[in-house]
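TL;DR need structure tokens for one chain.
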Amino acid sequence: MANITDAVDPGNAGGSVLIPEIPTEPNRPITFKCDKCGEIFANREARRQHVFDQHPFKRPQLLISSRIVKEQGEVIASPFPPADWVIQRAERIVIDQQEVTSRQACQRLSKLTSGFHEVTLASADHAVTYHIEFDIPNEAQLAAVERAFNMLIVNQPLERNRIAQFITVVKQEDGARYYLEGISNFLYGVLAKDQRGGTSLGRDDYTAKFHTARESLRFMDRPLANLIKALVNFNDNAFSEAEALAPDGQVAIACQMLNGLRSGKYYQASAVRVSPASHNLPVDTLTAEIMRFCSLPLAEQQEQLPQLVHLSSKRLTTGHDRVKIQALAMNTCWEAGDVEQAASWAKKLRHSPLFETLATRIIEDVKQ
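>> reply
TL;DR here they are.
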């Protein structure tokens, strides 16, 4: 019986086959080359550090009035001169598909008043495209908003229906859109924070409304717009920013006082009562009480401190407002000579990012 291997031809007449030797080469070291200058590195980390140090990434940037312009969703609602527009690290500039120089770009951007426009800035490393809406109202449109505000909001009970009426009237008179949006969102935020006026918003919704208002008024330089931005910053405990925007009167006094306490300094109350708020903008109850308290002379602050402290224990009191009240109580007790009570308040604030400097100072002074 034949085996299956009988049919296999072993080749070379059944003899062995010589396999030629293949020359070998030593393994070449793996290297990493810089794409920018061609320098060779032994490992990836060394090349990364070289690129970081010697070839930093140059991303073009567009700024307006020292603020970075957003790539998407930026709205310009106030005019800016060419000097306020700044273009950085761009080798090529295109506005609405037309290439321009840096100077031409700034001049052109300063003249745009309406519509959506596309700005592309390119460098050797990167290109950035900005989609910007220009909605710059004229004086008549701004006046329409302020006229409706004075007629429907000033010295009137703040209610949801009244804000809706204000919005309707401004739209009928073709008022400034983002001015209206900023004011109305702030007013809705006041209702949400106080949970009054027929609001359907939750208490915590006030923060989003306030921040939307500030963003809508971001570039608007009008007294009412600046006051709203100051009050939003005050609510956020951003006292330096609030003080820079605040007008005269109680708003400015409260900002100065709390900003001083934040910087670690005692604040001596005014010898006389400061006149009431010089504005007619509705604010939430607790902000109004805090600003009023800051405007009082020391003797009246001592009398009314228990009432203010009582407000801080309310369920609707926000964390930002509570820490403001604690700082005011600490300062009032210290200025009145009640150092033990001041130290008691200081202990509540010794871990506060805002007031720990002054709180620690009071605690240490009492120990000595």
